[in-house]
Amino acid sequence: MKAPYTFLRPNFFMQNLSTTYRDDIRYRDEIYVPAGHAFTAFIDARDIGAVAAAVFRDPDRHVGKAYTLSGEQTLTYRSVARILTRVLGRTIRYPRPSEADYLDRLRGEGDCCTDR
């Protein structure tokens, strides 16, 4: 007998900008994420919670389903930097770090595991 399940698959949490990447934005005026020119559909964690609540309210309707959750629009990190520049009143950059540069910074800050 299988256990009932419902998968919620959110895209990038909007709150990551105010938590995980906050210090880079606050102290370095940059968003340092190795995303290149990719578009991201940021989603607010509260919206994910609302979907989870709907699943719990009517679980039989959602058993065996998977939902990909995303925000209303997709943005590049360069676009996000422009929005933050406007909102914060200072220039926020997106330098498009490579994955290697990103991992080097994490290692230097002690936020990353060592190479395996």
Automatic annotation (TrEMBL):
Domain NmrA-like: 5-96
Classification via InterPro entries: Ergot_Alk_Oxidoreductase (IPR051604), NAD(P)-bd_dom_sf (IPR036291), NmrA-like (IPR008030)
First and last residue of the signal peptide: none
Superkingdom, taxonomy of origin: Bacteria
Protein name stated in the entry: NmrA family NAD(P)-binding protein
Top-level taxonomy: Bacteria, Bacillati, Actinomycetota, Actinomycetes, Micrococcales
